[in-house]
Amino acid sequence: MLHLLCAAAWFIGLAGVLYLVAKALLEIWKRTLRAPADLRRFGAKAGGWASKLQRSSRTLTRHLVVTGASDGIGKEYALQLAAKGFNIFLVSRTESKLQSVVEEIGILFVP
After folding, report:
1. Residues 29 and 74 in one domain
2. Does residue 50 share a domain with residue 30?
3. Is the pLDDT of residue 74 over 80?
């Protein structure tokens, strides 16, 4: 009887370890190996008023608004989107900080 309990406990422990390993491998795949998401799928849908604004001489221009763009996460988000080629509108409470972010983006990403 004790032998069966030990075998059951070992099996449950093994299943738990395998589950955790599978979760870890899935997270590694999601964060490093998987192709990045196509952010254009979050744009305007066909026929909407925004889709008419986005069309420009047969090319689709991408415009995004980033709030809190002068510090922290908002600034990094703006830098990452600018690096990917998005046209971004920056919003901030402090104009001087916002101007420094605009200059930084201009130096790094505007040809």
Report:
1. no
2. no
3. yes
Q: Residue 17 and residue 68: Cα distance in Å, rounded? A: 42
Residues 6+ apart with CB under 8 A from 62: 39, 40, 43, 54, 85, 86, 87
Owning domain of residue 25: 1-34
SS3 state of residue 77: helix
Of 90, 81, 89, the closest CA to residue 109 belongs to: 81
State the pTM of this model: 0.48
> Comparing 1-5, 11-15, 70-74, 100-104, which segment has the lowest mean pLDDT?
1-5
**Within 10 A of 79 (CB to CB), how many other CB atoms are there?**
18
- Mean of per-residue pLDDT scores for the chain: 80
DSSP state string for 1-32:
-HHHHHHHHHHHHHHHHHHHHHHHHHHHIIII
Share above pLDDT 70 across residues of the chain, in percent, rounded to a whole number: 76
Cβ neighbors of 61 (< 8 A, separation 6 or more) are 54, 55, 87
